[in-house]
Specification:
single chain; mainly alpha; 5 helices; elongated
Length: about 160
């Protein structure tokens, strides 16, 4: 795999993941709150997550594979990784991946069950938990993009 190909896949994966979170949190969520009652919103979110999480899994796997490929092929491994901004992106990326895995395997699975069982108060509480975690990941993702685009110049 060439560096330019790995870097391009890495960047596209970040855009898909962070852009999707931004759209869901800043656009879709307020519109759903404005236009739909809670019993209608929760099935919408289950459907949205069902489609979005497929792409997030692809993005996370691609980010990890291309990121580690670049660390080991371009920089010669962690010993050769002297740029602090790349270390910061690595750490934040691992945290984001862990948060995403938790969202997918714990509250999202419970949300699907709650919605199927029409337990809307439980579903609402789970959706709030997911919203908080997505907000955290969105902030971390935007921070990572800022570090990626400016870190080389400000040596974060």
């Amino acid at each position: 795999m060439s560096y330019s190909f790995a870097f391009t896949l890495h960047l596209l994966s970040a855009v898909i993941w962070v852009g999707g979170m931004f759209f869901a949190h800043m656009i879709l969520r307020p519109c759903a709150v404005e236009k739909l009652e809670p019993p209608m919103r929760l099935p919408l979110w289950v459907a949205v997550f069902g489609r979005f999480f497929f792409w997030v899994w692809l993005a996370v796997i691609t980010l990890l594979v291309t990121g580690y490929w670049m660390i080991f092929d371009v920089f010669g491994g962690f010993a050769g990784l002297t740029a602090h901004y790349i270390k910061a992106m690595h750490i934040i990326g691992l945290i984001m991946s862990g948060i995403y895995a938790y969202i997918f395997f714990v509250p999202y699975q419970k949300l699907k069950t709650a919605v199927a069982d029409k337990e809307f108060p439980t579903g609402g509480a789970l959706m709030n938990k997911i919203r908080q975690l997505v907000t955290t990941n969105l902030v971390l993702g935007l921070l990572t993009i800022a570090i990626a685009s400016g870190g080389k110049y400000i040596n974060v």
